[in-house]
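S.,

Sequence below, as promised.
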Amino acid sequence: MVLLKHRFFILCICLLILAGMTSCFNERSPKKPGDNTDWLTPTEPSILIENLQKAISTLNLNNYRRCIASENFRFKADPTLTANNLGLFNAWTWDNETQYFNNLTQASKPINANNSLQLINTRIINISSDSLELTADYNLSIYHQDTSFQSVTFAGLLSFQMKRNRQNEWQIAGWQDNKTKSTPCWTELRQHFFAP
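The prediction came back faster than expected:
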């Protein structure tokens, strides 16, 4: 009889434990494609650049947007191309940057593993403890599916004005592009994939 009571007691404890653990077995909703995977908190400028390179190689819109300051962001296009596109780049903002990158992402599916951004001859000028300017030559490869635009490699000289935001994370607040070779530059990529 004592053994039967003992078994009943153990069975009751097991049932209570199982009832308390039901939340462990609840189904979790899967992560949406494009969630902020591989994002590192950009407490240093080098981490921000790493995040930008990953966002470009995977064409991750969410991470790309996080690299760029949503308030007061300005893009300055290559001066030789701006003359032919008066109005397009005069007031280029974070919203324009987001729209261009989203259009590029849609035109690049399936995503190619050879997408990349390389920065060469990087130079940093510290302006203050929470602001700096980074200048570098770049080589950009984006393998899109838009047959009306044959270029997949781009090169030039970029200049980032980088600042810390309210969360003490580095972001790109300003971006200037300059064509340095006969190869198309990043301004041309933006120009093609931006549609108002």
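Confidence is low (pLDDT under 50) at residues 18-36.

Coffee later?
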